[in-house]
Amino acid sequence: MSTPSALFVCVQNAGRSQMAAGFLRALSGGAVEVRSAGSLPADQINPVAVDAMLEVGIDIRAERPKVLTTDAVQASDVVITMGCGDVCPVFPGKRYEDWALADPAGQGIEAVRPIRDEIRGRVVALLADLGVEPVGR
Predict the structure, then answer these.
(1) Alpha-carbon span 68 to 29, nearest angstrom
(2) Which residue among 6, 10, 75, 137 has its CA within the 20 to 30 Å range from the CA of 37?
(3) Average pLDDT of the segment spanning 37-54
(4) SS3 sequence, 2-66?
(5) Which residues are catalytic?
(6) Is the pLDDT confidence value at 87 over 70?
């Protein structure tokens, strides 16, 4: 069986999609190919999202916002949008999910923690759907 792949997409690729990608990388132990992108990528990752992830032992400081490409969508088995579903290209045979999550942009750490925790729960459910046993954390 080939390695499943997931693409997380939000507008800026600076908060929600980066946290989701960080959780999926960590919890899949490399069993899932992980991508993230934004329809209008920011210049840098939201520093509060970075801090929130560091609190749970996941370091996303080296990540950079990336632009959403047709190739990234085509190369992914599952495409998960977070508030930007209309701009994501749709291809037959791909699985699409839209996760309605609050936007952490401009929020303090107290507001970002529950968003982070909700993302973690959804990533754990995604792993179960993909037949991948979560590791660690």
Answers:
(1) 25
(2) 137
(3) 96
(4) CCCEEEEEECCCCCHHHHHHHHHHHHHCCCCEEEEEECCCCCCCCHHHHHHHHHCCCCCCCCCCC
(5) 10, 84, 88
(6) no
Mean pLDDT across 9-23:
96
Q: What is the pLDDT at residue 120?
A: 98
* DSSP line for 102-127: ---TT--HHHHHHHHHHHHHHHHHHH
Tens of pLDDT, residue by residue over 66-81, are 999 999 999 999 999 9
Its CATH architecture, for the domain 5-130, is 3-Layer(aba) Sandwich (3.40)
Of 121, 130, 107, the closest CA to residue 2 belongs to 130
